[in-house]
Amino acid sequence: MTAPFEIRQQDAAGRIGELAVPRADRTVETPALLPVVNPHYRTIDPDRLSAFGVQMLITNSYIIYQDEDLRERARSEGLHELIGFDGPIMTDSGSFQLAEYGDISVTTEEILEFQAEMGSDIATPVDIPTHPDADRETVESDLAETERRLAIAESVDTGDMLVTAPVQGGTFPDLREQAGANAAATDLDVFPVGAVVPLLNNYRYAEAVDLLAAAKRGLGPSRPVHLFGAGHPMTFALMVAMGADLFDSAAYALFARDERYLTVRGTKHLEDIEEFSCTCPVCAEHDPATLRDADETTRTRLLAEHNLHVSMAEMRRIREAIREGSLLELVESRAHAHPSLLDGYRTLLDHVEQLERADRASKSTFFYLSEDSARRPEVRRHHDRLGRLDAEGPLLLTEGQSDDGYEDSWRIKPPFGPVPPALSTTYPLTAEVPERMDDSGYVAAARGVKRLVEANPETKFVVAQFDWPREAIETLPARVTVEDLGSGMGR
């Protein structure tokens, strides 16, 4: 069966959706973060996780399967009783251990049957997560084996338990797209993009965006996508904008054990903090010195609680940004926290055509925040529409006032370019832009002029501008007459 997944709202490739989990008789609102709970060690008691806003968690079925006591308890008590959480639980299969140690002592059939027996709500087969730096021959071999195991997973009787179809393919976008298409052709339910943790751990965000984009092209627009191991809140907005719906995080607990403090702008060490700027309950009730002086168990728990509060708050912030239509503004603000995130954002915009197909046509106000805003899908869409318009001339395109000496006049508004009068009060042409526009905004406006001119080869055009940069002027078609309205007023 296909998991009931209903998309409610979209912004760029990000979407708010509802994933029905039949076995739990629950619906999970996406984007959602699934905290990882270790069956042996609970930094935060799972029965408290709902107070943080957690809808679903993830644990490792292979760890349970390998431990005789846990295995028998899971079979007799059920997974939810064993873990201590009454909401939906997703289980991993041991693929992480396979990647780390080279082999595991369980087959796909065995682990899926065990996950079904103990009451998992969403199960995972044993796929082959290939290291991002593996050569193409290795990746193709591992991918073939993963696809063979997905076929096995389809044949296992799992009742109403959902089953995932992991998408592998190393760092080869064509293989990721192929893997996505193969996974989409199965009757499995949720689609994790795997083996990206080494990329994220090494700040290779641009590559992670490319691989997610490729997987999405193969999967198509309607399937729920899980980004395995993406647990740092500084990356959530970027990956949601590229189409990820589910995330899992062990970082909230693992970082706490190392006295690391998560923020949406990066990670800090507790010893380096003099004051907490966060307003979560932990930070409101404690200062850094108090946490440093606490015993190790208390300190780890409190840091984990802070880390989880920050992570869940960012996911709520992202969902609200999608509702408002301001997700890309949030992504851009997050991107300027780290050069590698900025690389990731610019890579996201390299996929503007893919984003534009998913993006909704009307949102809240477009805010131009930097030169990267000139590459957003809204600008691309407006330029495409200009290429379909008929324009009678002579037509004045002006940054200043209209002129009665012309048949017609339209405004020019960087980064969009020509603004037909009938559209001047519609999104995104109501954009808030800085008075000191950067060169990229003017160049984008010139590209908009070029699209309109090319669509109307018999029309005479005049562009009246305030001191545009040379690159923007040179972008205009040669047959356009350019007038200067006055030095320095446009920059």
From TrEMBL:
GO cellular component, one term: cytoplasm
Domain tRNA-guanine(15) transglycosylase-like: 13-339
Note accompanying the cofactor annotation: Binds 1 zinc ion per subunit.
Catalytic activity, EC: 2.4.2.48
Residues annotated for Zn(2+) binding in this entry: 278, 280, 283
Organism classification: Archaea, Methanobacteriati, Methanobacteriota, Stenosarchaea group, Halobacteria
Name of this chain's protein: tRNA-guanine(15) transglycosylase
GO terms assigned for molecular function: pentosyltransferase activity; zinc ion binding
Residues the record marks as active site: 92
